[in-house]
Design brief:
Length: 104
């Protein structure tokens, strides 16, 4: 069994724990963006964002931008991150404008 696989007898417990953790993270993020309880830094940041805009985030390896896209999604923004970051673009692993497999 690979290190990221879960045995069948543990899968329901792992899935339930994952759901609880995801709910807890959404609750914490919402708390930070709530005007009554939120952190001034995040409230100021959110005030500058357009709720109707689509945000595409990127960083060198895609980890930080992916995490922040999740935060924005949790509080109602449409946000995406470039998978594998700008390193993937520079290495040619990310297609520029044409999905892989389509004829030129």
């Amino acid at each position: 069994m690979a290190s990221n696989e879960v045995s069948c007898d543990l899968k329901p417990r792992v899935d339930a724990a994952r759901e609880r953790l995801d709910a807890h993270v959404r609750e914490i993020v919402a708390w930070h963006f709530d005007p009554e309880t939120g952190c001034p830094f995040w409230l100021d940041f959110a005030a500058k964002l357009d709720k109707d805009a689509r945000y595409v985030l990127f960083c060198d390896n895609g980890v930080q931008s992916g995490q922040f896209a999740n935060v924005l999604q949790a509080v109602g923004y449409e946000a995406y991150a470039l998978k594998e970051g700008t390193k993937a673009v520079r290495s040619g692993r990310v297609c520029s404008g044409r999905p892989p497999g389509l004829p030129g």
